[in-house]
Design brief:
By secondary structure, the protein is an alpha/beta fold. The protein has 14 helices and 15 strands. The strands form 2 sheets. Strands 1, 2, 3, 10, 11, 12, 13, 14 and 15 form a 9-stranded mixed beta sheet that branches. α5 runs antiparallel to α7.
Amino acid sequence: MAIERVIVVVLDGVGMGELPDAPDYGDAGSDTLVHAAAAVGGLRLPCMERLGLGRIRPIAGVAAVPAPLGAGGRMRERSPGKDSVTGHWEMAGVVLERPFPTYPTGFPREVVEAFEVIAGVPALGNEPASGTEIIARLGAEHLRTARPILYTSSDSVFQVAAHEGVIPLGRLHAMCAAARRMLTGDHAVGRVIARPFVGEPGTFRRTVGRRDFPLDPPPNMLDELVAAGVTVHAIGRISEFFNGRAILSSDATTDNAGHMAALRRAVERRGAGLVWANLEDFDMLFGHRNDAVGFARALEAFDALLPTVLQAMQEPDLLILTSDHGNDPTTPSTDHSREHALLLAYSPSLPSGVDLGDRDTMADIAATVRAVFGLAPGGHGASFLQALTAGPA
């Protein structure tokens, strides 16, 4: 039976072992999923285990079942960098030649001054920092002065934090939208991110009003789908990564439980030809905070909800579970790590137990989607649809 719909679920930050160039990024030895499993004495992931997760590589608590329901492997990120936008763009067939700019010592004066014109007041911070840490450290001064907190990380991000009672959410979003328009050329960062928070000194907490302002992507697989009359439904931050372009409908859910509920509804509706979801809790709540236990428990919570999606699938559906980068919660770093992406594929209508191996690029997802819908091959990636259809060697 031919595949008629593709469901892509990105487990944000769930890397599958260091890439050969990981030492160049300071990520030698990073292995997010394996290390998170070891940190809790083994993971309980019965659904992904049945799909074949334990056959990709040894993971504590996850058995290598002899007859898995799905196909498994890993994918290399060919683009330089290790941020979410780069990873998602590569899944859509865009392989970057150079990384987005990063600022390990803070933004240059000309960038800060241009932003301060937008903000109307001087900025606080301007340094690489953990978001929760810099809010705890500079939040009280922000309350006194109404100066926005500007910071970055090892990724290509321009982040602005503000208390919702000092800079209302609408104003913060407008400020970041203007910063996005300002950051071009050599300073075209991957994302401008609004980071609102509430509370008092000692009890500050970030809110769900976060909003990302990424670069507009180059032409990609989503544009080709729309041109061919194939509709795209996005869940979570997918629409933000692509500036909403070529996306017919979306669910702006804000946590893994909400994403999974929206995913189940989308699968049951049988509307879009491509359903694409991003689940960011692994990365945002646990990887960036070096919380290995929380990371592990989030994986188990996802696995417990995954059967609701599988049960809603029909014969011509293809599910692809993947990741955009790593975020090893057991290393000293609190930033993303340069790792292979997870690859698990399942369809009720296709043979099971296929070994997809270590693949050359995450653009193989775009190539596979193109093959499903009869589109011309793109410039990057190799489809694994034929391998799935043929079955185990």
